[in-house]
Amino acid sequence: MAAIKKTIYAALLANLFIAITKFIAGGISNSAAMIAEGVHSVVDTINQLLLLMGINLSKRNPDKYHPLGYGKELYFWSFVVSILIFGLGGGLSVYQGITHILHPEALGDPKWSFIVLAISLVFEGTSLVIAAIEFNKLRDGQSWWQAIVNSKDPSTFLVLFEDSAAVAGLSIAALFLYLSHHLNKPYLDGVASLLIGVILVIVSLILARESRSLLMGEGIKKQTKQRICKIVEGDKAVLKLMHLLSTYQSPEEVLLMLIIQFKPNLSTADIDESIDRIRGEIKKEFGRIRFVIIQPDAFKGKINPDVQTYI
Asked: Which residues form the Cation efflux protein transmembrane domain (predicted)?
């Protein structure tokens, strides 16, 4: 978590500085693309603050109103971040782009815009490299996209997506700023703003999809389920694992519920001992599984191999 915070702080400082300089340069050069980039940096700055708040709120201890803790605060604020990128970042950039295409304004001096874009690329590029290095440590042999889809911590890939979109947006702004002055076609500046907005909308939809899945109760992966099944059915008192349900409460906390059919003629003490063994072995092997609820299922006298269900 310390490494993740380092990535967020790096992006926060970079975006705060860049936002100010972009607005100044945009005002001087009368560039819609630069103003759109300024809005983009402001939204990114707010997003990093919200992510930090979500991380801190998710660490609160359980209480009588939230006995399982506040881990899903991170998922909630990550979803809010994706909505902000869509509405404030993408929406305003698209609106401003269309406005400047329909009603192009006279171009100002682009010198300061190019200077700011160059400085911004250095800062955003540095932040992107830091985010990529930290996320690469978490991939564990997976492809980049697989690691993003399988990640249970949206803060690890949110900054990566934001910085990637920022670098792409800066490149588009620089290219179209040059073309608009070189060809003397002011409307191209609006086209740049529109393209930046479209990129932000696409990024926001991807982030919203991943954050929503976690917020709605995404469970553990198939391989983990299979291993838990082996642990449970390997216990001497167990006849069959009937159902397995799981959900991530936070990136580091999983709630697991097992419905187990125990062998007949076992005493209550035998079943209790088996439950303690199973719970202990699962927690020992899977550190993220903090809550294990086990419900014994009555023996029906007949075993149907098709009954076992994973949910």
From this structure: 9-216
